[in-house]
C-alpha cells in the first residue's frame, strides 16, 4: 500500500517537473506578461459595445470571436461577463460567440498548447476556435431571432450613450510593444544556441524597457504589472496542483487505458471526446496536461482529432458552467448552445484528424 502511494506521488511530481521545468521560463512567463499587457492596455468596453444585434455582422462577430485574447479568461470567469453584455443589449449571436471564444481562444492556453502538444495542434485549436465561435453564434442568432427582436425594441426605448477614446501615444507604439513581447516568447523558446538566445532576448527586453520609459506612464506600467500578477496568482497554483493530480491519475489510469476510445480519428471517437469535454471541468491551461498525460496524446495513445475536439469543447463548457448558463438564458438556449458546441467540435476534430482541415 505504501509503495503504491509513493509511486502515485512520484508520478505526480514527475508530471509537474516534466511540464513546468521545460516550459515555465521559456513559455509561461512570457505568456503571462503578454496576457497581462493585453488585459491592461486593450480597452474591454471599446470591444463589448460592438455586440448589438444591429451592428454589422463582420464587426460584431469578428470582434467577439477573438475576444478571448483580450480577456484571457476561463469558462467560469466568462459567465458573469456574458450575463453582463446580454443585459447591456448584446445580440444573442455575438454574445454566444463571445461566450465560446472567451475561454477557447485564451492567449495563455493557445501558447501553452502549441509549445507542449505541438505547434500544429496549437494553430489548429486557435483557428478552429475562431471559426467555430462565429458559426455557433450565427446559428444561435438564426435559431433565436425573436430574442434579438426584443433586444432591439428595448434598445429603441433606451437612451444611447456615445463614448470616445483618445489616442495619447503614437499608433505604432502599442503594436511594437506587443511584437517585442511575442519576440521574447518566440526566441526564448527557440532551439537556437543558448548564448544567441540570451543575447536576442536581452536586446528585445531592452527595447521593451525603452518603450515603457518613454511612451507609457507609471500608472500604465503598474496596471500591467498588477494584471500580470493577478493572472499568475490565479492560474499558476491551479496549474501546478492540477498537473500533480493529473500525474497521480495517470499512475492509476495509464494513457493506454483510453486508447480504445480516443486512439483513432473516427467520428465516434471525436464525438466521445467532445462529450467528455462537455462534462469535465478543466481550469485554464490544465486541459493541456490532461490531454497530453492522462489521455496520452504526447505518448501516441490519443489521436489528433479527439485531442482537438476535447480542446475545443473542454475549456468552453462543463457541467457547472452549463447549469449557470441555463439560469442566464434559459434551458432551450442552453441546450441549443451545448448541442452546437458538441456537434461542431466533433466535426472539427474529425476533419483535422483525417487531414481534411488544412491549417
From TrEMBL:
Subcellular compartments: Cell membrane
TM spans (from-to): 20-42, 62-86, 98-117, 123-144, 172-190, 196-216, 236-255, 267-286, 307-329, 335-353
Topological relation to the membrane, as annotated: Multi-pass membrane protein
Broad class of where this protein is predominantly found: membrane
Any Gene Ontology CC annotation: plasma membrane
Pfam families according to UniProt: ArsP_1 (PF03773)
Keyword set, alphabetical order: Cell membrane, Membrane, Transmembrane, Transmembrane helix
InterPro entries noted in UniProt: DUF318
Family: Belongs to the UPF0718 family.
Protein name as it appears in the record: Permease
UniProt organism field: Methanoculleus submarinus
Amino acid at each position: 500500500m505504501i509503495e503504491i502511494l509513493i509511486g502515485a506521488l512520484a508520478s505526480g511530481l514527475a508530471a509537474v517537473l516534466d511540464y513546468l521545468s521545460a516550459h515555465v521560463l521559456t513559455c509561461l512567463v512570457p505568456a503571462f506578461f503578454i496576457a497581462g499587457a493585453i488585459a491592461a492596455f486593450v480597452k474591454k468596453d471599446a470591444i463589448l459595445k460592438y455586440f448589438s444585434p444591429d451592428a454589422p455582422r463582420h464587426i460584431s462577430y469578428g470582434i467577439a470571436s477573438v475576444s478571448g485574447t483580450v480577456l484571457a479568461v476561463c469558462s467560469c470567469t466568462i459567465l458573469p461577463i456574458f450575463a453582463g453584455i446580454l443585459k447591456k443589449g448584446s445580440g444573442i449571436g455575438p454574445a454566444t460567440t463571445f461566450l465560446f471564444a472567451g475561454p477557447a481562444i485564451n492567449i495563455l492556453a493557445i501558447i501553452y498548447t502549441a509549445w507542449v502538444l505541438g505547434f500544429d495542434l496549437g494553430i489548429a485549436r486557435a483557428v478552429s476556435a475562431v471559426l467555430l465561435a462565429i458559426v455557433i453564434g450565427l446559428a444561435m442568432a438564426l435559431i433565436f431571432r425573436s430574442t434579438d427582436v426584443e433586444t432591439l425594441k428595448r434598445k429603441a426605448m433606451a437612451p444611447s450613450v456615445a463614448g470616445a477614446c483618445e489616442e495619447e501615444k503614437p499608433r505604432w507604439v502599442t503594436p511594437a510593444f506587443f511584437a517585442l513581447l511575442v519576440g521574447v516568447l518566440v526566441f526564448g523558446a527557440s532551439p537556437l544556441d543558448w548564448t544567441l538566445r540570451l543575447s536576442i532576448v536581452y536586446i528585445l527586453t531592452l527595447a521593451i524597457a525603452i518603450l515603457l520609459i518613454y511612451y507609457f506612464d507609471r500608472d500604465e506600467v503598474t496596471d500591467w504589472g498588477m494584471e500580470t500578477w493577478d493572472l499568475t496568482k490565479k492560474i499558476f497554483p491551479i496549474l501546478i496542483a492540477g498537473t500533480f493530480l493529473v500525474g497521480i491519475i495517470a499512475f492509476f489510469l495509464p494513457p493506454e487505458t483510453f486508447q480504445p476510445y480516443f486512439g483513432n480519428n473516427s467520428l465516434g471517437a471525436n464525438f466521445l471526446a467532445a462529450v467528455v469535454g462537455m462534462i469535465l471541468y478543466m481550469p485554464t491551461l490544465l486541459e493541456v496536461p490532461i490531454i497530453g498525460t492522462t489521455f496520452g496524446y504526447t505518448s501516441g495513445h490519443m489521436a489528433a482529432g479527439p485531442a482537438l475536439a476535447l480542446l475545443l469543447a473542454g475549456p468552453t463548457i462543463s457541467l457547472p458552467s452549463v447549469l449557470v448558463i441555463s439560469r442566464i438564458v434559459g434551458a432551450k438556449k442552453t441546450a441549443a448552445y451545448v448541442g452546437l458546441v458538441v456537434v461542431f467540435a466533433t466535426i472539427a476534430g474529425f476533419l483535422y484528424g483525417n487531414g481534411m482541415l488544412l491549417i
